[in-house]
Amino acid sequence: MKVVVGLSGGVDSSVAAYLLQQQGHEVVALFMRNWNDASVTLEDECPWIEDSNDALLVAKKLGIPFQVIDMSDLYKERIVDYMFAEYKSGRTPNPDVLCNREVKFDVFMKTALSLGADKVATGHYARVDSTFDENGKEIFHLLAGKDNNKDQSYFLCQLNQNQLSKSLFPIGELTKPEVREIAKEIGLVTADKKDSQGLCFIGKVSLPIFLQQQLEPKEGEIVEIFNDFNGFQQKLPDFSSKLEELQFLSKKTVYQKSDGKVIGKHQGAHYFTIGQSKGLGIGGHKESCFIISRNMEDNIIFVGEGKNFPGLFRKALKIENSDVHWVREDLRLENGEQLAVKVRIRYRQALEKAFLYQFEEGFYIEFVNPQSAIAEGQFAAWYLDDELVGSGVIS
Hints:
With 395 residues, this protein is α/β, with parallel strands linked by helices. It is 24% helix and 28% strand. It is globular, with a radius of gyration of 23 Å.
């Protein structure tokens, strides 16, 4: 089988290519150049050149064909412009999820298939399996990686059945230490290379500097809320329907400047996100202050002291029906139906018990335990056991 590997210059994709080669596949390596502007990366670093060189050295070591493809215009259009628009509107996007949906498993996959590939492989810590339904139709399952510390299934939460049918994740059964050990044994230059901490395919980026390319600084006030009687309440009123209860539980608290006290200044509400505590420049508190809300129109950030501040928590969230995505279309809920699942609302968050509710008015997730820092624009992903079956953009 001919397999095109997205060789990123890191240890994970390097070992993925090696394992496929050991399995007897015809392996071709493609490196995606997705960013050209070094002005926003951290000082003295030009990550794509270094990564491309490392990928080339790995391909030479393995004796497999290697090619660089420039997708920077596409990446800017589909990922970077989207990021700027989301931050400007007061939402918190996840570019890595979008990168997988719009770039790696869309245009990159189509490019690979046009080169005669049967499958496309990446170095994600995830697994894909398949079964057949009663009609003989093959159903593909997106499963969590075996390494709980590195599971990256969340980043793949927007993939569909067709994309999964063409995808391979060779290291999904391995742990990170096992991957590094394989790389050392065969002498790969990437064996001890640190994991990328930057935005998908851009590299080590200072996010505020990156955002300042398009979003102008604008001084605003930081308002501390002290007694949050409007935040999550343990004692709920009586509701006439489950929908009414979910609408109440998922509603975001709206604060006014008069509800608290001005304690500082910031350079733009669009640079921050719900639950953030770093970079606020606030002192004089026993515990850190966390952002609990933002007023984008008036450019005000509202904070509360301590990680257990009530205003940080909500017990439910809403997803617009148009933003609901089922990896397993056969499990899609009809109006009025519900499903017990486990959910995460950010990468590396522990899975939380929750219930899904589908209504004509919208899609809701109600958690067994209140969740901290639910941020608009992020993705909620839901699982049955270790299978990711769907996801959606938090509204």
